[in-house]
Amino acid sequence: MRMRPTMSWTPAEDLPPGTTDLGPVADVLNTGDVLVLSGAGISTESGIPDYRGEGGSLSRHTPMTYQDFTAGAQARRRYWARSHLGWRTFGRARPNAGHRTVAAFGRHGLLSGVITQNVDGLHQAAGSTGVVELHGSLERVVCLSCGTFSPRRELARRLEEANVGFEPVAAGINPDGDADLTDEQVGDFRVVPCTVCGGILKPDVVFFGETVPPRRVEHCRHMVREAASLLVLGSSLTVMSGLRFVRQAAQAGKPVLIVNRDPTRGDRHALTRVALPLGTALITVAWPNIPVDGRATASG
Length: 300
Description:
Elements: H1 23-31, E1 34-38, H2 66-71, H3 73-90, H4 97-107, E2 111-116, H5 122-126, E3 131-133, E4 136-143, E5 149-151, H6 152-162, H7 183-186, E6 201-205, H8 214-226, E7 229-233, H9 240-251, E8 256-259, E9 272-274, H10 278-286
Parallel strand pairs: 1-2, 1-7, 2-3, 7-8, 8-9
Antiparallel strand pairs: 4-5, 4-6
Helix pairs in contact: 4-10, 8-9
């Protein structure tokens, strides 16, 4: 299955309006077996911008596509220069109230699982277990020739050694860990090859236009089949990789609930869309019965 390189979506005027009523979200959580599907919007409160919300990175940045990355050395030089710089900032991000509350829901047996479209690892850092990373993880690197996986921190060390003094100031950081740099700032940044075969290294993430591994997709479909309901957190559902699971759940008659301040491509399939900030919304649902990070607090 191929992830459509859809980078924008225009909401129709007749979409159902959002609400501030968290009652339906609380109801499905009380029932249990809720499958969470999260997107970039859950990480904005950790300082990582989303793609399409207000001030989203797509207003200033076009994400790297798989086709561009594999087409030429110059595109890879630009990507790795920006990603290497972004990695330093990205690695300092910490879980926010949204991530911590999802982990608390899991500890209390309310969730059947978590699928995330994010590549930042913040769900796991917050304590969620068994998270399926639909689009991969920035923590790993893969060789496109021999398939060897290696830790991103190892590559970061090698890039540091190959590019001593590389300290440009980025205009911003994007949800994929890519920093905004000009061609002048990229300069003659040196890209390093695979240590096993000398091949091209790529982060173990699904770029726009790249195939989501079929086994991973089928595993997620199985999770949807086994869940009682689907709770979408912070995703515009613009790309088919996430929208397909919303459609699957709705077609099976399972309640779909969305927490996202802006309209989403899945609103027609949802029982409700709660238009509130994620951290505030989830902490409110948890209060006072479910302690978050060991504290029963409505402030997060």
